[in-house]
Specification:
Blueprint: E1 3-6, E2 12-15, H1 23-37, H2 41-49, H3 55-58, H4 63-67, H5 76-86
Antiparallel strand pairs: 1-2
Length: 93
């Protein structure tokens, strides 16, 4: 039997177990991390090491600042820029 539950963000969902994971939040979390799969492993680790875990985090950095990171090369910037633009976001000017 499924029970109506809600998460901290107020999403309502049904679960047949006592698992507290909200499917709406999990889907959003997964889509936020997809951009990291488009870049190389060294670039991904460089971003993760400075705390970038979603696209919004990228907007506080300029392209020039990111290029200074070990692991971020010129090939990563266009990928990140396009991903940001698709979500109507941009790097810091």
């Amino acid at each position: 039997m499924k029970t109506l539950k809600s998460c901290k963000k107020g999403h309502k969902f049904y679960k047949s177990s006592d698992c507290p994971v909200c499917p709406v939040c999990e889907k959003a979390k997964k889509s936020n991390l997809e951009f990291l799969q488009k870049i190389s492993s060294p670039a991904r680790r460089a971003l993760e090491n400075i705390g970038i875990i979603n696209l919004e985090d990228l907007t506080i950095y300029s392209e020039k600042e990111l290029l200074k990171l070990h692991g971020i090369g010129p090939a990563s910037i266009p990928i990140l820029r396009n991903t940001l633009e698709n979500k109507n976001l941009s790097f810091k000017k």
